[in-house]
Amino acid sequence: MKEIFVMYAKYNQAGNKTIYDILDGFSSEDREKDRGSYYKSLSGLLRHIFGGTCFFLGMFKAVVAQNAAALKALAALDGVTRAGDAAMSEGEWKAFKGSLETADAAFVNFAEALSDADLDLPLKIEWYGGNPPLSFMLHQLVVHNTHHRGQMSQIFDSLKIDNDYSGISAAFLPR
Questions:
Q1: Are 59 and 141 contacting, i.e. CB atoms less than 8 angstroms apart?
Q2: 40 vs 10, 45, 66, 85, CA distance in Å?
Q3: Could you give the 3-state DSSP secondary structure of residue 37?
Q4: Is residue 10 scored above 80 in pLDDT?
Q5: How many CB atoms lie within 10 A of CB 98?
Q6: How far apart are CA 64 and CA 113, in angstroms?
Q7: R_g of the chain computed on alpha carbons
């Protein structure tokens, strides 16, 4: 099962890179323009994806406390720049993009560091109504990010910007 999560993490990283590359061609004003989504702008959606990734990965620290490689992967998030809700300048965008890339790499490295036994470990999450296994919450992270990239895709479609990152290609299959 570990290979599936490595595949998902790499797919997530590639999908996000496609978005970063598209948004690099936007002005700050265009990235921040209200596009009618719940998180308003494309930048707002991306901030939410990033925040969700950091939130989920942060929850996993306690459950993998005995896995030094997994903890090392998560430690990469300790120094990332968190973007606020205010519009970002070009310099702030570049710093935020670096943080996004760090979070995506941390997800890949975390998935690669897990054992199949780790995936069965229960997380203590009071607000979730139980103690779901790590594998379930990793699925939640993947679904969360895919959902919001889908929202971004719809906005790109309405702007007539080519953006094909919605499927997992054979390139992501475990080798």
A1: no
A2: 27, 7, 40, 11
A3: strand
A4: yes
A5: 13
A6: 10
A7: 16
Q: How many domains does the chain have?
A: 1
Q: Which residues of 146-165 are buried (b: 16+ CB within 10 A; e: fewer)?
A: bebbebbbebbeeeeeebeb
Q: What tokens appear for 117 in the block?
A: 């036994």
Domain encompassing residue 77: 2-172
pTM (two decimals)? 0.92
In single-letter form, the type of residue at position 149 comes to: R
Which pLDDT tens digit goes with each residue over 78-126? 988 777 778 888 888 999 999 999 999 999 999 999 999 999 999 988 7
> How far, rounded to the nearest angstrom, does the alpha carbon of residue 168 sit from its chain's CA centroid?
15
Q: pLDDT per residue over 27-63, tens digit each?
A: 999 999 999 999 999 999 999 999 999 999 999 999 9
Write the single-letter amino acid at 34: D
> What share of the chain in percent tops pLDDT 90?
76
Between residues 112 and 129, which one has the greater pLDDT?
112
- Domain harbouring 61, CATH code: 1.20.120.450
Exposed, middle or buried, 129 (CB in 10 Å: 0-12/13-18/19+)? Answer: exposed
Angle, alpha carbons 14-141-29 (nearest 5°): 60
State the DSSP string of 77-138.
Answer: GGGPPPP-SSPP-HHHHHHHHHHHHHHHHHHHHHHHH--HHHHTPBP-BGGGTB--BHHHHH
